[in-house]
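ok so I'm stuck.
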Amino acid sequence: MKFETLVGLRYFRNTKRSGALSLITLISVVGMMLGVAALISVLSVMDGFLSEMKTNILSSTAHAHFHKLVGRFEEYEKLAKDIRQVEGVAGVTPSAMNEVMISANGKITGAIANGIEVATIGEVIELPRQILPGKGSLACLEDLTKCPDYAKAAVEEDLLADEGEAPQRLLPLAMGRDMAEHLRVAAGDVVTVISPLGGGIGPTGPVPVSRSFVVVALFHTGMYDYDFKFVYLSLPDAQEFFSAKGMASYLNIKVRDIYRVKEVSNRIMHLVGGFPYGIQDWQDMNKTTFKFLEMQKIVMFIILIVIILVASFGIISTLVMLVMGKVQEIAILKAMGADDRMIRRIFMLDGLLVGAAGTIAGALLAVMVCLTLEQIEFPLAKDIYFFNKLPVEMSLMSFGIVAASALLISFLATLYPAWKASRLSPSEGLRYE
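replied:
not stuck anymore, here's the structure
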């Protein structure tokens, strides 16, 4: 291979003697560079979406939800103690969840009210650390006296649902920042929460109930859907408001290794004996979202690989012109004893040099593009996308897959010109010498 390498490099350097050949070579390198850069940049953005979404989802929701399929889930406290002892479990906290409507300042929106146990919620999700600075604390959900700024609002117990009814105590509520902006409320303001099932079942069906809540904390998870849809209250208040005394909807579970969540789930189900209990992990709960993003990544890879395929035609043109210009040299090499395989390797090396130059230049350009996107924090519409800025994550795997694909396409592009060169006979090449 040493001889073929020396000859191939000499032929590659000599392309500078031909202006047309040099131009085609440059176009081939630039085309390969742009294709590789575009593909790596898009894959880095898609990887950023997947990574950011996974991080935000797993910081804002439990890794697994344990629930009772049939009957009232009243034994959740005992089961929580047992599940904490299961190998691989990092934390357990109960919650009571229900859909509600929230109104304030003439605006109304749907929400998911989640009653939480303040003492243990931090074991499972990052909510205590997602409270905005100076915008309250989760401790206020259990004891309003711990929130001096809201004491005045909290003692206004003369709010009436209807004239003539007994006064109701204001209940504390934590709300996402985006929902607060939509309702035009701030920490310390009062909102009305309507539960469709809080009044139980009447002669004509479910009886809705409304209650006044004071916003004692604002949180920001980074996920618009969560910040606009979720509100939190203490578990006892939620049980009272939903007419579900002593009941929980789920036991929220955090595992030590998110990729072994199914293994841990099986241990938990074995512990409780299966039915009437069930468990759903984060992979099942977000299967559609992650599958959609992975499918988009594959589709974008297939579409953008076409750019590299187009650039490969430049490599073919470069080699064909190189072969046409080196007919006499090929004939001399064959007359000196070079076989067809040696000739093929010489021109394949030249084609791979063009492909490798474009691939390396493309990878460097992609790094510059990705770093630029990270620096400028390209904004996104948060009510359409999951995030308010474009996430970018460069991974060695993406770089390796694209580089390997580009080099493979470059190699395939050299086959025909190299085969054509090897078919030249010495007599034909020296006929006009």
